[in-house]
Amino acid sequence: MESLTGTTTDQAPANPAATDDMLATQPVGYWCGLTHTTVTRHLRDAMAKIDVTQPQYWVLNRVSGGPTAPNREEVVTQLTHLADGPHEIARVVDQLLHREWLRIDDGQRLHLTDAGETARAQLRELATEIRAVVHKGISDEEYVAALKVLRKMVANVEGDGTPGNPS
Question: pTM of the entire structure?
Answer without folding.
Answer: 0.80
